[in-house]
Amino acid sequence: MSHRPITYAQLLETNNLLQVFTDESYWLCVTRTVQESKLFPVPAYMMLSYLNAFYRYPSLLRKVESRMKAEEIGDRARNMGIKINNPPMSWGLLGFYFLGREWLINMGLLRPQDAVEDIVYVMDFWKRFQLSWHRNDGHITNKEFGHRAQVLPERRLQVFHADMYRCEAGDELHTAAANFMATVSQYGFLISCESRISLCNTGPYKIDDKREMIVRDFMDLAENDLPWLDGVAADMPYNNLTVPMMVKDCHFYLMDDWGSFESKPDFRAEHIAGVGLYTSDPLTEGFVPVGMGSKAELIRTYNDLAGKAKEATNRLWKRIAGWTRDQMIDAGALMYFGIFKDIAHVAGTYEYEDWMLIDERAQRFRPLLNDEFSRDVLAELVGYVSQPSQTVHDYTMMQHNNGPRRMFTPIPFSILMGDDYTLTSGPVYPGSTCLPKKEDRYRTSRGQMTLAEYNNAVRSFTPVACRNENRFLDETWLKYNAKSEAARALYENEQALSRKLKGKGAGLSRADVEALADKS
Amino acid sequence: MAKLYIDSDKYGERAKFPTVEAYHSAVKDLVRKRLDQAGGDWASFVFDKSLTLITADDLKAIEARLLKAGHRFDYSAIISVQERPEAYKPVPGLGDAAKDYSFEHPDAPTAPADAQGRALSGVGDNVVKHPANTTGIARYVRTSAMVMDYLTKGVPPDTIAIIDDSGGTLTAPIIERFKGIICMGGSTRSHLGILAREYGIPCLMNSKIKGIKEGDTVELESSAAAKTAEAYQTGKEMTANIWKHGC
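ok -> structure tokens follow
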């Protein structure tokens, strides 16, 4: 790794992004949830994951970028519903890394000016990914967009809209869809050791004055990177499932960077007016329909997948109930730490040793992680923002809080005047886990693969929309070139598996799509 | 002894919680000592030498000192107490004590029975406004052993689960079989609240209850307005009542 001088402009930008991230992180942490579980020692595993993130993320991001740039991964992410969305990329990447840093500062094991090159790089990677992923809505985060995430291009929204099956409370599809989403949400919380990181909502998108659509991703469902799913998830045929969901008389006024929503009135299943079902992964041409041949097939598919998710939930719960505390901590810490591991799958650089082990530099802190200390230090870092490093001068009024607080410490500009600083935490060190080693089988859209097969397949695959000839054909270009051959080809590629829009091309308006869609 | 960079902090002094302050002070003392041993050069210490000079055994010793002084940890996960009962405060109301146990929140509002024989026994934050109130039989669900028992034998009909865990995993295999939920912690945005909303199960989060025992008939005011994010942010009280019947 080369060591280029850190510039004033780099520090200004890094510290700005960090402060903006600080403001939103506080709001998310105090308004979205209270983290607790009687099953999992959640704060303990979180604190361990933060340290693992601090020590490993810079090296792992550089490894990913040795094959694919962050902004190119962002291009891929726009066309998939896999774990490189919210909260993995928007919040987890920075949140976990900087919480690890802040904790180490407060234990005297780090200074604000240590690992400066890492910090600048991690922030720059995040910025490039986020700008790319949010390219269609033109923002860097949901927060910047007033808590919205309109990441999808028109061509994909048209297919979701047109192919959706209509439903209303009490009918068979409505019941099946609502039960499926509840069951797979519950499974997601268990897979994720009590975190919400297997679930992501994006949108909303306007269908008409009374109806909106959001896109709901349910991820990491089958045998994948997580060792605890070996066997128990063997029957799950898809690793990622996406439900475009249309609601009536319910406005989603908030879609945050954790992938959670708020609506007026409160969203209830009765509001659901249309649904679809898709899968995607790094080997698909975007979203592939699942059970979308007819309404009856979709009902059967929802019920079948809900049944499989329920069985997997019960098997997994029994497995977890038999774990030791250390195994629970490892699973939770690795789930958190590996929150955006799928970027390595997209790049074809995924390795078990990178993403599913606790680095020895983090591992040594495990003896500190009793429930009480973990709970209290976590609460100080993200809730009270009361650690000494987080305390600033008394004139300060923190956003959302008004106290003299700041969640994350900036890099001091004084390093530009000769104050000493260090560059990097170094490479990935050896790691360990008390969980069973992952079996070498991964559920993909091309069937079960070994990891080597999976990495090789990914390296030789580029979705049509991401190829050089299409990559920069964006929504602004499309506005003025909808009648071009290139636009027709791009839209028809997206429509190839659509039951309503196959071959319709780029000229349709939303009203045209509504006219083609089912009416009941 | 070596001075750490953060020893010169103008604004920050102590952690908010005593346990955090005790741990962090001990770790900082350790770092000062080991930095001295390493020759005082921070650049070579911070990412290289510190790994071998600050070890798991060092950190284990910090906890041992705290326990030796008589401290016992609060628990959050039941397994922590099960594996190290000597290090944690006991969990009340489990085992033989479960039959007569009730959560007794000091701030739970109570009132004598009304004309319908319903005694106000607490309040909670309603997750979703339902068309009607929900009445059922109170059953405490607090450990994985209890969940396993219900998973094996089935959840009795009309169960209103009383849970001191706002997470979604402890009750994952059986949640859809509850008629209603009273949760002692969290908010309407907690995982248990999210799942209750998805399943359409009446649920009150952040509840404060008193005097409700296993087998009591209880009524949740699930027809009350749902507590909003704005209400949490502004501190506005928006609660739904919990009554005990047959008083």
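The longest strand of chain B covers residues 119-126.
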